[in-house]
Design a protein that fits this description.
Blueprint (H helix, E strand, L loop, with lengths): L1 H6 L5 E4 L23 H17 L4 E3 L7 H10 L8 E6 L1 E3 L11 E3 L3 H15 L3 E9 L9 H12 L3 E6 L4 H9 L2 E2 L2 E2 L3 E5 L8 H9 L3 E5 L15 H9 L6 E4 L4 H8 L18 H9 L5
Parallel strand pairs: 1-2, 1-12, 2-3, 3-6, 6-7, 7-10, 10-11, 11-12
Antiparallel strand pairs: 4-5, 8-9
């Protein structure tokens, strides 16, 4: 896959901008991570600082989404200000619409919709910001009830996008991630597999998607790991620490890129040190909890 070739020799840690693209998110410890005044300008500056630091450290994969507030905009502006940078891979996602209006306290922060009309609208919005820098476009947070797994019209739209050179994929969430991944692997258009990348939650608390991700890797899908720190639960006091948690994900033979969701320069530097650690994930196997419990607890994390 061309993306794999482009990432050869780069850090296997990618930087996601979910935590700095909008003022509210569900990571623990967030109150201390961001400026007191979370203005657009303040978070744009923070995002650019993190992108500069990550790029200097060898990170070449950057992850955004339509629902991450202004994350696509921040990344696009960073790229435009650095025209000599032509060796990064940019991935974005569609399927959630950001609805918080740049507020931390909002009744609803994002609305999920995987219909064709939403793809058409959000793809246009993404292209308007990222132009030809878009390399990977994923359906955001697919669950078993999503029409994205069955909608032939949507599949044709996505296949047409793939013919233009954009890698088409999906991200997953919830206790049925493995079911979704296996269903996605069976989706074909004109006899060819449609989805060529998968982004899923895998961490020491919730490793259940591992076997399905291995299957995806074995048939040529690019596998991204998100939430390796369990939204901060593995990094806070009493957890294993960010380095161990990220190193455990990096040790998975099917993982191409493990995402950092750092909100500060110190966090990013600490996350990147995971690549130097030797960790045996089996040592931490007893941390795993039932998937239903994990996702229930995650759903109760506050937006701060």
């Amino acid at each position: 896959m061309a993306i794999i070739d482009r990432l050869a020799g780069a850090s296997r840690i990618g930087l996601g901008l979910a935590a700095v693209g909008r003022p509210g998110y569900i990571n623990l410890g967030r109150a201390a991570d961001l400026p007191v005044e979370r203005t657009v300008e303040a978070l744009r500056a923070r995002a650019c600082e993190l992108l500069d630091q990550a790029y200097a450290a060898g990170v070449r994969y950057f992850d955004v989404a339509r629902s991450y507030g202004r994350a696509e905009e921040f990344l696009a502006q960073w790229l435009q200000a650095r025209p000599d940078i032509d060796d990064v891979v940019v991935g974005s996602k569609w399927g959630y619409t950001y609805t918080a209006g740049w507020r931390v306290e909002a009744e609803t922060h994002e609305v999920k919709d995987h219909r064709v009309a939403t793809f058409d609208r959000q793809y246009g919005e993404t292209r308007a910001l990222l132009g030809d820098r878009l390399d990977l476009y994923q359906i955001h947070s697919v669950t078993p009830d999503s029409p994205a797994l069955r909608d032939a019209t949507l599949h044709r739209r996505l296949a047409d996008l793939a013919e233009q050179g954009v890698v088409v994929g999906l991200s997953t969430s919830g206790p049925a991630q493995a079911e979704v991944i296996r269903s996605a692997l069976g989706v074909r258009v004109d006899g060819q597999p449609l989805f060529r990348s998968v982004q899923a939650t895998w961490n020491l608390l919730e490793p259940s998607a591992g076997p399905a991700l291995a299957e995806a890797h074995d048939v040529g899908c690019l596998v991204f790991v998100k939430e390796a720190l369990a939204n901060g639960r593995l990094a806070v006091r009493g957890g294993v620490g960010d380095g161990v948690a990220l190193a455990a994900a990096l040790r998975q033979p099917w993982a191409a890129i493990v995402l950092s969701g750092a909100a500060t320069g110190d966090q990013l530097a600490s996350n990147l040190r995971a690549e130097t650690l030797t960790v045996d994930p089996a040592r931490w196997a007893d941390l795993a909890v039932p998937g239903t419990r994990y996702w229930q607890e995650r759903s109760q994390l506050p937006w701060t």
